[in-house]
Write a structure and sequence with these properties.
single chain, alpha+beta, Phosphorylase Kinase, domain 1, 6-stranded antiparallel β-sheet, 5-stranded antiparallel β-sheet, globular
């Protein structure tokens, strides 16, 4: 394999220089982290599943006119993406109270919210990705008011799409987070959904049983993470209904 120029390595993915200017190759690792990386493990097949699931969601968003950085999946662990200037925010959309929100407000997990709520956290692992109000975002120049208006619109469109897709296979979309990037075409800039959309970045509960099918399985020691992600992929038709765990050694 030809040596590639690594651009960035995060907790779950590696970015390499792409084959054409303005492109990157995004590689999905099997690493699992929780509690701001205090808990770590390697989960066989997780990267394969997240690559396929993120492809499924990004393609679906593109089909309904939501712009993303996704170009195509290259193999079992890699996809070709557009290089974007990532805004240093995690955009969190909540449909039900869970996780940190339930703790902050003393709400029972699973409480349906009166409407989808959008929060922002500053992407900085050393600080624990703290929640920030819009005033901070504007004051520090992380995004403009127009950016925030566009980000809100993007986030709610993603929520509508994801909620509908998940409901159709008996899964409740409790909450999720996305990243947004600036994609430049000469002097013209547009905002696109970046990073990934997968069970790593969503809370997904079975509608009937409440079984968790997301990274909370790892965070809370609730079972096998690959089994949970495989169930999501099976229900969505991303992998055959009778298939076993995807084999991480496959390259196509």
């Amino acid at each position: 394999m030809a040596r590639r120029n690594k651009i960035y390595e995060g907790k779950a993915k590696v970015l390499y220089e792409g084959p054409e200017p303005g492109t990157l190759v995004q590689y999905f690792k099997d690493d699992a982290t929780a509690n701001n990386a205090e808990k770590r493990d390697v989960v066989d097949g997780k990267g394969v599943l997240n690559n396929r699931l993120s492809e499924f969601f990004m393609t679906g968003l593109g089909n309904i006119g939501v712009p993303t950085h996704f170009i195509k999946r290259l193999n079992m662990r890699e996809q070709l993406i557009r290089q974007v200037e990532v805004i240093p925010l995690e955009v969190i959309v909540r449909n039900y109270a869970a996780g940190s929100m339930a703790k902050r407000l003393g709400l029972e997990e699973g409480t349906r919210l009166p409407r989808p709520l959008v929060e922002y956290s500053y992407k900085e692992d050393a600080l624990g990705d703290p929640l920030v109000p819009e005033e901070y975002i504007l004051a520090f120049g992380w995004a403009t008011q127009q950016d925030l208006d566009d980000i809100l619109s993007l986030a709610l469109r993603v929520n509508d799409f994801m909620s509908g897709v998940m409901h159709g296979v008996g899964i409740r979309l409790v909450d999720f987070k996305i990243e947004v990037g600036r994609l430049w075409d000469g002097d013209y800039m547009r905002l696109v959904v970046a990073d990934e959309i997968s069970p790593d970045s969503c809370r997904l509960w079975d509608v009937e049983t409440g079984q968790k099918l997301d990274k909370d399985v790892f965070r809370r020691d609730l079972g096998n993470l690959t089994d949970a992600y495989t169930e999501v992929a099976r229900r969505l038709g991303v992998i055959p209904a009778n298939s076993a765990h995807p084999k991480p050694t496959l390259i196509n």
